[in-house]
Amino acid sequence: MKVLSKRWLLASATVAIAAVLAAIGGQALAGSKAASKSAQGLGPLTGLLPRDHLTEESAIQVDLSKETVRLPLYQGRANGETVWFVLLDASDQGIAHDLGVNYAPKLGNIAIGDPEAVQTVTLDSPTPDQNKFGQAIVNFQGAPDFSPTRIAEPGPNGFPLANFQPGAVANPGYSPFIRIAGSPTVYSAPIVATGDGPFDVVHHTNTGDRVLGVHIAGPSAPGQFAESWVDLLFVKGFDAGQPIIYISTDAGQPLTSVLERSTYVPALDKAAYNGGDDFLGSARERLFGFINGQSGADNRESQGFVHLVKDGHASEDASAGNTALIDSLRNGGDLLNVFGDFPTLKDPRHAQAYSPLWDAQLGLWTNKAVQEGLNKRQIDEVQVFNLAATRPDLITGINPATGEPAPYGASGVDINCAVIGFTDKAPTANLADPVPNSQFPPR
Question: Do 403 and 14 touch, CB atoms closer than 8 A?
Answer without folding.
Answer: yes
